[in-house]
Amino acid sequence: MSRAPDLSHIRNIGIVAHVDAGKTTLTERVLYYAGASHKIGEVHDGQAHMDYMDEEKAHGITITAAVTQANWENHLLQIVDTPGHVDFTIEVERSMRVLDGCVIVLDGVRGVEPQTETVWNQRNRFLVPTLFFINKMDRAGADFDRALDTITHRLAGNPVPVTVPLPDDNAVVHLVERTILRFTGEKGEEVETRPCDEATWEQVASLRENLLLGAAEADDSLADQVLAGEEPDPEAVWRALRTATQKGHAQPCFGGSALHNQGVQPLLDAVVRLLPCPTDRPASVARRPDGDPETVAMDASGPLAALAFKVQMWDGRRHVFARLYRGRLKPGDPVAIPGLAGTLQHERVARIFDVDAARKNRIDEAFAGQIVLLAGLRHATTGDTLCAPDHPLLLERIEAREPVLGLAIEPFSNVDEDKLEEALNKLQEEDPTLRLVEDEETGQRILRGMGELHLQITFERLEREFHVRVRTGKPDIVLRETIASAIDGDALYDRLIPQDHGMLELKARASVTVTPLERGDGIQITAAPRVLPESATLSDAQQEAVEGGALDATFTGPLEGARLTDIEIRVNEIELFGAASLPQALRVATGEAVRTAIRKAPGLVLRPIMDTEVVVPAEHLGSVLGDLQARHALIRDTRTEEDTATIKCDCALDRVLGYITDLRSMTHGRGQFSMKLAGFDVG
Prior knowledge:
Blueprint: E1 10-17, H1 23-33, H2 54-59, E2 66-72, E3 75-81, H3 89-96, E4 101-107, H4 114-126, E5 130-135, H5 144-155, E6 159-161, E7 163-166, E8 171-174, E9 179-184, E10 190-195, H6 198-203, H7 205-216, H8 220-227, H9 234-246, E11 251-255, H10 264-274, E12 284-287, E13 293-296, E14 305-314, E15 317-326, E16 328-329, E17 334-338, E18 344-348, E19 351-356, E20 359-363, E21 366-367, E22 371-375, E23 385-387, E24 405-411, H11 417-430, E25 435-438, E26 445-449, H12 452-466, E27 470-477, E28 480-483, E29 487-499, E30 502-516, E31 523-532, H13 540-552, E32 563-564, E33 567-576, H14 583-600, E34 603-617, H15 621-630, E35 634-641, E36 644-652, H16 659-666, E37 672-681
Parallel strand pairs: 1-3, 1-4, 4-5, 5-11, 6-11, 28-32, 31-33
Antiparallel strand pairs: 2-3, 7-8, 8-9, 9-10, 12-13, 14-15, 14-23, 15-22, 16-21, 17-18, 19-20, 19-22, 24-26, 24-27, 25-26, 28-34, 29-30, 30-33, 34-36, 34-37, 35-36
């Protein structure tokens, strides 16, 4: 039997950022300095080790989360490099779910950007301890202090500076060690350390004070030293900073330039010293089939508990990325996959790999705390729990976001019809935010995704990987429906259903009230009805049928056939008719009562509203604002910093399709924008 690894020497970390902040460039330096690669691959040359897909090389962006490993100071770093573009945010979401720590990369000129806020919220959801690397400090306009301020004001974080960049000297000031680290050699691989001179130390004195105050919040003895004006021991500062980081009370910040090989090594030291190992993290809580909770401690000796967080087609075969939270796993081992409805599907693991970007290496056994790639699982999907067959349980799932943009698609050639369907099925398995639906009226297939780039990349993959070219139609915007005022509905269901031995009577009546809610409130169902006749009560099956019928009615609205949202359905009264009031009768009656109410109420069509941020040269602010107003955008904020203007606004998705082309035309190619779904509204 293989020996379980020392979990205290493992760091499962992610590198996340807004698009073009330099996270893949940073990852390339990490791999090089750690000896995991023998050359530095550059994103702009299409040679990045982690951007191995042809589409990533062509577009110069990360599209899919890539996993790799490196060793630093006798510690194994399992690193997930994630996309920065909002269209691929599901890759960040499912990666965050299985990480023990993360590094958020900021552009030193721009500081916190829109997708930074998105990944910060994802980090908050899973309480992932965080370091910041403020990158591109060699660029004109870069400002370390201003970047720290954006963390405070835009994220409500607590940034604690640890290294301060000296880009002109290819160096950083280390505020804990009171040293200057200078990066020399051909690729910054050599680090020269010298005591910090008094002149430089005076320049960073305020940042040093911020560091000590941030660390002291987690350590009373250090706080006493700081308040007394004493110089604390560096090890005491490190211990306090580690506690503050892992509790989420502080986010240590490091400065440098990944492209110019400045400041990466002290960040790696901090990953080892400050971020948690698997056993430092709180134990996961799972749910047993009977609904009772179970604590899952990070232990290789217990029954298997693992989370499948990503499906990927590799060499044409289906593979599953999984994080083990308990137990161990060997090739040939059986696993069970519990379903939400209490089902239990049995599979067997064929092979296990550790992964280095596009390369996989076969291993004999995996243990709690590791991230591995599994082959042979035909049915496991993103968010599934893999557990021991004799010990079923469910870990917290990963929920995919709803796609907002669709295009009608068909193959160029009829002979590719079956090939297209097979390819799309595989891509949907990989990406839960891709959805293929069929228009009931036209029979057209609509492929829906998170945005224009998301769909464009999908079509490129169809052609490259599956040799299927497609034609596309006009964009199909995902809509929602709601009502403008409260309305009552009543329905009697009374049917005779032919059976083998006669007729089955189904009969029930339901009375409901449907009320509009605030935007973003979703669907709320209250089913505590008065039951007639007075002596009657609803069985558990009947109660479930009533609630299910109410929900069924929300799937298709009367105006555009879109899903309903932002309504409360209150079931007021249910009338039973003896044996004829079977659960299926109650389900139909309740659903029809809700539909009756909705058809009578004044309806509203809701369009996707995008939270949009536009960054342009200040000289073009006026023309860009005028264009956004012409698109009926709601301008929420405009600010100018030096020669750059930032506009925050809400705009309907259909009004910003293809916007990047118009924006670049207005700004001579210098403008950029990002957007994410804010919700649905009348637009």
